[in-house]
Design brief:
252 residues; alpha/beta; eight-stranded parallel beta barrel; Xyl_isomerase-like_TIM-brl
């Protein structure tokens, strides 16, 4: 372990964590996140606001939007509109957060890979990059084939990257370090979510995941953004503060 720290402008919040606060006061929530120290956010849910409005809220809060989660169905339902919105937000990445349950088979993942090749080309032409966000079930093995690996193998690296959710990789029985080493440069964004002793979600730095060991390989993985996420925080603001402090002070 060295004395490296995460760059200040690389510490962000994936806004799903703050959904209750966003529903009440979107601009105020972003301002408070900026005051804690966050510099970037990933958008997940608009809560009735337009892309233009959310961009202005972020600008006023001194935050940079780096990505937005866009449902898989948008690949065939106004994908150009989805790309235009991410550009309006100022993002770099358009992220598909999950696959429909009916596609969670080897054939389904191959179908998704073919769709991602097409959508990834359109994203590239728009000056963006398509990413996929994983859950634990994406690492299921079927007939000796890890489903997630189908996407890595069947979509060109310049057309699909990954927003790697570290909690869900471990939940799925895999090690993020292996992916950083075996598929360098494919993981520009992380969801940094910790795991409690009982396997539930935990604030960053409070759980049992060895983030310093993972982050020591982050350069190899191509990581540019460390986005905090907690799916079910008891107190979202306490969680946001604890997680920010853990990342800001972490050495790896």
């Amino acid at each position: 372990m060295s004395d490296r720290t995460i760059p200040t402008d690389g510490i962000g919040m994936h806004l799903y964590t703050m959904r209750e606060s966003l529903a009440e006061d979107y601009p105020g929530t972003l301002r408070r996140l900026g005051e804690i120290g966050y510099r970037t956010v990933g958008v997940s849910g608009r809560f009735g606001h337009t892309a233009e409005e959310i961009r202005s809220f972020a600008d006023d809060a001194g935050l940079r939007i780096v990505l937005e989660h866009v449902g898989y169905s948008r690949l065939t339902d106004d994908w150009q509109g989805a790309l235009a919105d991410v550009r309006t937000l100022g993002g770099e990445w358009v992220v598909v957060p999950s696959l429909p349950i009916e596609l969670r088979t080897p054939d389904g993942f191959r179908e998704a890979a073919a769709a991602f090749n097409v959508a990834g080309k359109a994203a590239r032409e728009a000056g963006l990059k398509l990413l996929f966000h994983n859950h634990g079930h994406d690492f299921d093995e079927v007939d000796g084939q890890v489903l997630f690996d189908i996407l890595l193998e069947e979509v060109e690296p310049d057309l699909l990257g990954f927003e790697l959710d570290l909690y869900w990789v471990v939940n799925g029985g895999k090690d993020p370090i292996d992916y950083f080493q075996d598929h360098p440069g494919r993981f520009p964004a992380l969801h940094v979510k910790d795991m409690a002793a009982d396997g539930s979600f935990e604030d960053v730095g409070v759980g049992r995941l060895d983030f310093p060991a993972m982050f020591a390989r982050a350069d190899q993985g191509g990581v540019e953004q460390w986005l905090v996420e907690h799916d079910a925080p008891t107190d979202p603001w306490a969680s946001a503060r604890t997680s920010y402090r853990s990342l800001a002070e972490m050495r790896y």
